[in-house]
Structures are given as C-alpha cells and as structure tokens.
Amino acid sequence: MHFSERPVRVWANAFYGPPRGITFKMYSSPITAVKNLDDFICFAGSGPVVLIYDLREHKCIAKEILLRSSVIHGFETRQISPHDWYVVIFGQRAFTIIKWSNLNSTFEIVVEQISSPSWLLSAYVWQFNHIEQTITVLFGTALNQIYQFVFNKEKNLKDLTLLKSFDYTTLYPINYLF
C-alpha cells in the first residue's frame, strides 16, 4: 500500500473514539481546523484540503483542495437561510468563500482563493446583506492588523483593504473586538 493510500481515521472527540465507518483514503496530514454546522455537518481542514463529514451517517461526503499551497487554519460561518451557509476558509496568507447547502449536501465556490498581505489568524463574518448580495469579512493578521474584505456578487466587487493597524499586540480573536 502506497503512503498516500493508507486508511486514515479522523474523529472530533477522542474520549468516545471514532464513529464507525469514517474511513477513507488520503495523504497523511494533521487536522488543523474543525467547524460544525448544525448538529450533523462537520468541516475539517487538513493541509489545503477541506473534508466535509455527515456525522449522522458517519461518512465523508466531500473532499476538495480549496486553499492551494496553504494550510487551513480555520473556518468562519454565517447562516444565510435555513439550509444555506457561507463558509470562509482561511489559512496562512489566503482565503476563499464557499456556499454550503444542507438540502443536497453540496457547495459552490463563491470567491476563488485570494491572497492576503499578512498571515490570517482569525476571521469574522461581520455583515451580510441579502438584498444586495454583499458579504463583509474581517480578518485579524499576524502583524496586528485588521483587514476588511467586501464581496458583492452583482457588481463583481472583491475588495481587501486595511481597516486598522494596532501598535500593540491583539491577543483576542477578531470577533471580540467588535
């Protein structure tokens, strides 16, 4: 068996052990980010790969490289309808935004990968406007800066701007600052 084809077991709660049936083939890489949506969908980041699990059926339902040449460090979500979510996937100096649908367990890429001037440590979906189809995301960086990313689907606007630069260390995740 080749190194990249070894079965790997991944589980979120080490106290109870792995759920039955969560086995798939992939390269060996640590899980660096985990986020649950509702009670049954789990996003996991492993290197540049996003793994999406259905916890009711104990299986991986999607596996996709969404951050090329970056390690995923986190997920930030915003529910936009009873069955749809925006998911911001960020890591190192890059991020992307997808739209996840619980109805048919699919996702579409809303914003292709965008590079940041600094390492992204945290993200916060600050605003979402249903009428204008605008989403605003704030990012905290390793250089004590806050960047604002505005995306407008109708106007095809993608704007990443420096919002604030601190002279002191920001030790809190960005959602505690606002």
Automatic annotation (TrEMBL):
BP-aspect Gene Ontology terms: tRNA methylation
Main subcellular location: cytoplasm
Cell location: Cytoplasm
GO CC, alphabetical: cytoplasm
Keyword entries, A-Z: Cytoplasm, Repeat, tRNA processing, WD repeat
Superkingdom to which the source organism belongs: Eukaryota
InterPro entries reported for this sequence: tRNA_Anticodon_Mtase-Reg
Name assigned to this protein: Uncharacterized protein
Source species: Didymodactylos carnosus
